[in-house]
């Protein structure tokens, strides 16, 4: 990709990672433009963030569809109207089926609040504390049909501190997510990162371990 990559961002909630992406596009640190934001939940605050930035904000309530396949067909049709280079999942709380994932293979990214492959799924902060982890964080990965199982290429790491609970740890991780996601998207937008089979190339070389950002 060259110049500014086009993004469509999918959300389900307040959109704090969306805001970090919008801000990075605005200040030029992310070589991309957000062409549309789509939420599967109507009325969420993330849509207001999009409108405030002058970005089309679309609602597509999954509850209006008979099944997952029909929702995803309608979602793909709306995404493809904007011909994005990358589809960005930013707190999009839907499990996506194989066909949808394959349609955007190598072009769809997700952020997950753990150091994958640890703690796939939900309640990651509680589980990290319960497991006695000394470090925790967030991961960026290409989306594949396996839940939170696509190739990881970027992570941010935070310490788990004595006395942490799920809320304090989540807040520390979220702060780093806001640094990590724009950086990871920028790498993809500039063509530095791309999916290669089941692995990732970084500057044309196989990536052996995810690139890590530290606080």
Q: How are the SSEs ordered, and which strands pair?
A:
Layout: E1 5-11, H1 16-27, E2 32-39, H2 45-52, E3 57-59, H3 68-81, E4 86-89, H4 98-103, E5 108-112, H5 124-130, E6 135-142, E7 152-159, H6 166-189, E8 193-196, E9 199-202, E10 205-206, E11 211-213
Parallel strand pairs: 1-2, 1-4, 2-3, 4-5, 7-11
Antiparallel strand pairs: 5-6, 6-7, 8-9, 9-10
Helix pairs in contact: 1-6
Enzyme class: transferase
Family: Belongs to the GART family.
Active site: 112 (proton donor)
Molecular structure report:
One of its GO terms (molecular function) is phosphoribosylglycinamide formyltransferase activity. The record marks 148 as: Raises pKa of active site His. (6R)-10-formyltetrahydrofolate binds at residues 68, 93-96, 110. With 215 residues, the chain is α/β, with parallel strands linked by helices. The protein has a single domain, classed as Formyl transferase, N-terminal domain (Rossmann fold, 3-Layer(aba) Sandwich). It has helices spanning 16-27, 45-52, 68-81, 98-103, 124-130, 166-189, and strands at 5-11, 32-39, 57-59, 86-89, 108-112, 135-142, 152-159, 193-196, 199-202, 205-206, 211-213. The strands form two sheets. The chain has an eight-stranded mixed sheet, with helices on both faces. A three-stranded antiparallel sheet has the order 8-9-10. Helix 2 (45-52) links the parallel strand 2 and strand 3 (57-59). Helix 1 packs parallel to helix 6. The radius of gyration is 17 Å and the shape is globular. The two termini are 29 Å apart. The model has no long low-confidence stretch (mean pLDDT 96).
């Amino acid at each position: 990709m060259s110049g500014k990559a086009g993004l469509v961002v999918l959300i389900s909630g307040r959109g704090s990672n969306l805001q970090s992406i919008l801000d990075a596009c605005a200040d030029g640190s992310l070589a991309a433009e957000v062409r549309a934001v789509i939420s599967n939940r109507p009325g969420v605050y993330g849509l207001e963030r999009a409108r405030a930035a002058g970005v089309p904000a679309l609602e597509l309530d999954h509850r209006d569809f008979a099944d997952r396949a029909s929702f995803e067909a309608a979602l793909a049709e709306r995404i493809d109207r904007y011909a994005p280079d990358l589809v960005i999942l930013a707190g999009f709380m839907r499990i996506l089926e194989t066909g949808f994932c394959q349609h955007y293979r190598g072009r769809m990214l997700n952020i997950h609040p753990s150091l994958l492959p640890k703690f796939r799924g939900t309640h990651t902060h509680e589980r990290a504390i319960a497991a006695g982890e000394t470090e925790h964080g967030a991961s960026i990965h290409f989306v594949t049909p396996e839940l939170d199982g696509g190739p990881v290429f970027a992570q941010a790491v935070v310490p788990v501190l004595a006395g942490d609970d799920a809320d304090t740890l989540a807040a520390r991780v979220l702060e780093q997510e806001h640094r990590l996601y724009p950086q990871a998207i920028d790498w993809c937008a500039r063509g530095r990162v791309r999916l290669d089979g089941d692995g990732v190339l970084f500057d044309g070389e196989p990536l052996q371990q995810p690139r890590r950002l530290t606080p």
